[in-house]
């Protein structure tokens, strides 16, 4: 349980974010009354690269990451850092190839883009999948992780605490729109990074530095915890080739084709801001390994050294064997390693992750329902009505997310559960976007059939994995399963494109790159801010980091 001072700090932070979100959202709305829908859903296309980069990071990093990445650091070392650092490569793809395309096409949503490139059927399917994934992946899982933390720290019922925080977040999100979301996300990113850095330094100094940690790992024969690229047959099920082949399938969908993430780019002021914002986020994505995962690794060595009491996490399983439920390791570190006052800052950081994830997802859901569903059937709808529908939708989505919590709580590892679901959703969407942007012959009929059959195939495989755990399919690691499903979808769409040849419209004829070099023709800003320079620097930096922690 945390002290009264820390409780006050946490409450003041939540109320402060609510006030800032409402103030910015209402102020921006009053200044821009002429185009209410664009202002509400896309911030009037006024976002600059720092806000885009920070908002992308905040929407990605939730309480799930703070809690579950520390858990993964405790259990398997820095292995799951692959999800953080590999993201830099897909953010480069977003900056170089996807962002300029989205800005050029002038779309409000990614389903809107699919209709322009393919047809309405593809748009409708992506809307359904995107809304469902936003509710499950971006909101419900974040609520679950946040509820576990708040229950541990405050001793209140998990569902009660999550409902309160969610309602507060929903208020400024529903009232203020994307402008309120991005402004609060920028603040929350800074708070989150500061808070995570504090716990990292606290664990580091408690251990006595890096070398004592390495000595403990060596003495317990756990040196592989410092390796990010594991060999074939590794018990984790994530050898280096699974990461190399499987992550791009997940990453391209998540960073380049998911409305909740890409909406920040769609609200960019111009193409340069839309390019540099994701690259800025790519640099920030270096931090999570050091401030989220390595603290969990320190917690493991501290526990092995007797410097961290984890008895509260221990229990006896049905076989009479002692097990450690590492889900609560992050909150345990907060309460044992930090003094009063700093605990309140860490709680604020955790709440930042929860609130930013919920706000971003709610805004994207309301945008898709407004533009892709409601306005399709009622094209004459006025902006005020569109905004009202978006607000109602956000409230309904919040209720659905809360109802899913008991089901998702069955996963041992929140992070692995999250990626397991993504691995079965992403392949057909990644395939359709990649071929749509880079291949002239990708036809509308092929996209529709690939989305339908590919999604059905993913759902069937997922069901088999959960119902029949001893089957050969169930033994395939989810990263490799994502790759296999992607290859199946790729072959499927290519075959269907030849069976049902493309018939381009005047609009779709312009919506694919004629060559891989075409999107690189734009000169961009001069100096270090040039998107090409930043891409090369980020690539080299990631190469060095992977070499060091190979």
UniProtKB/TrEMBL annotation:
It comes from the Bacteria. The keyword Membrane applies. InterPro entries: Na/Glc_symporter_sf, Na/solute_symporter. It is found in: Membrane. Belongs to the sodium:solute symporter (SSF) (TC 2.A.21) family. GO terms for cellular component: plasma membrane. The keyword Transmembrane applies. It comes from Flavobacterium cutihirudinis. The chain crosses the membrane at residues 6-26, 47-71, 83-103, 124-150, 156-175, 187-205, 238-256, 276-300, 342-365, 386-409, 421-439, 451-469, 481-500, 531-549. PANTHER family: SODIUM_GLUCOSE COTRANSPORTER 4, SOLUTE CARRIER FAMILY 5. Keywords: Membrane, Transmembrane, Transmembrane helix. CDD domains: SLC5sbd_SGLT1-like. This is SSS family solute:Na+ symporter. One of its GO terms (molecular function) is D-glucose:sodium symporter activity.
């Amino acid at each position: 349980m945390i002290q009264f001072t820390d409780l006050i700090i946490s409450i003041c932070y939540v109320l402060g974010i609510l006030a800032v979100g409402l103030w910015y959202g209402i102020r921006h709305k009053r200044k821009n009354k002429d185009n209410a829908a664009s202002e509400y859903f896309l911030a009037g296309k006024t976002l600059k690269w720092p806000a885009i980069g920070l908002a992308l990071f905040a929407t990605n990093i939730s309480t799930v990451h703070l809690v579950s990445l520390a858990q993964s650091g405790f259990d398997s070392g820095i292995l799951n850092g692959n999800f953080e650092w590999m993201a830099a490569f897909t953010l480069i793809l977003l900056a170089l190839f996807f962002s300029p395309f989205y800005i050029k096409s002038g779309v409000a949503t990614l389903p809107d883009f699919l209709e322009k490139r393919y047809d309405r059927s593809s748009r409708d399917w992506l809307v359904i999948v995107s809304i469902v994934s936003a509710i499950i992946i971006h909101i419900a899982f974040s609520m679950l992780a946040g509820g576990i933390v708040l229950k541990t720290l405050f001793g209140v019922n998990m569902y009660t605490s999550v409902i309160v925080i969610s309602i507060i977040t929903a208020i400024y999100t529903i009232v203020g729109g994307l402008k309120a979301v991005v402004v609060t996300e920028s603040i929350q990113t800074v708070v989150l990074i500061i808070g995570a850095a504090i716990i990292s330094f606290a664990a580091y100094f408690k251990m006595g530095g890096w070398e004592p940690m390495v000595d403990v790992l060596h003495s317990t024969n756990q040196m592989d915890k410092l390796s990010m690229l594991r060999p074939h047959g590794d018990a984790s099920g994530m050898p280096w080739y699974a990461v190399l082949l499987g992550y791009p399938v997940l990453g391209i969908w998540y960073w380049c084709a998911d409305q909740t993430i890409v909406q920040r780019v769609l609200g960019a002021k111009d193409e340069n801001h839309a390019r540099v914002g994701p690259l800025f986020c790519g640099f920030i994505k270096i931090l999570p390994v050091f401030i989220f995962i390595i603290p969990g690794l320190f917690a493991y060595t501290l526990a092995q050294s007797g410097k961290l009491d984890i008895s509260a996490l221990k229990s006896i399983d049905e076989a009479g064997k002692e097990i450690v439920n590492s889900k609560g390791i992050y909150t345990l570190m907060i309460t044992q390693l930090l003094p009063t006052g700093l605990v309140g800052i860490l709680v604020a950081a955790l709440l930042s992750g929860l609130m930013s994830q919920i706000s971003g997802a709610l805004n994207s859901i309301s945008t898709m329902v407004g533009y892709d569903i409601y306005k399709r059937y009622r094209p004459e709808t006025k902006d005020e009505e569109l905004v009202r529908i978006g607000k109602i939708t956000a409230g309904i989505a919040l209720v659905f997310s809360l109802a899913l919590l008991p089901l998702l709580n069955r996963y041992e590892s929140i992070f692995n559960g999250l990626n397991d679901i993504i691995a079965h959703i992403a392949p057909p969407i990644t395939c359709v976007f990649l071929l749509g942007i880079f291949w002239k012959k990708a036809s509308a009929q092929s996209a529709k059939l690939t989305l339908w059959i590919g999604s059905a195939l993913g759902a069937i495989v997922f069901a088999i994995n959960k119902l029949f755990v001893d089957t050969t399919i169930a033994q395939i690691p989810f990263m490799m399963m994502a790759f296999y499903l992607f290859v199946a979808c790729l072959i499927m769409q290519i075959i269907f494109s030849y069976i049902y040849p493309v018939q381009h419209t005047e609009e779709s004829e312009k919506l694919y790159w004629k060559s891989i070099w075409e999107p690189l023709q734009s000169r961009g800003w001069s100096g270090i801010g040039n998107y090409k320079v930043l891409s090369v620097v980020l690539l080299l930096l990631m190469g060095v980091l992977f070499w060091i922690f190979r």
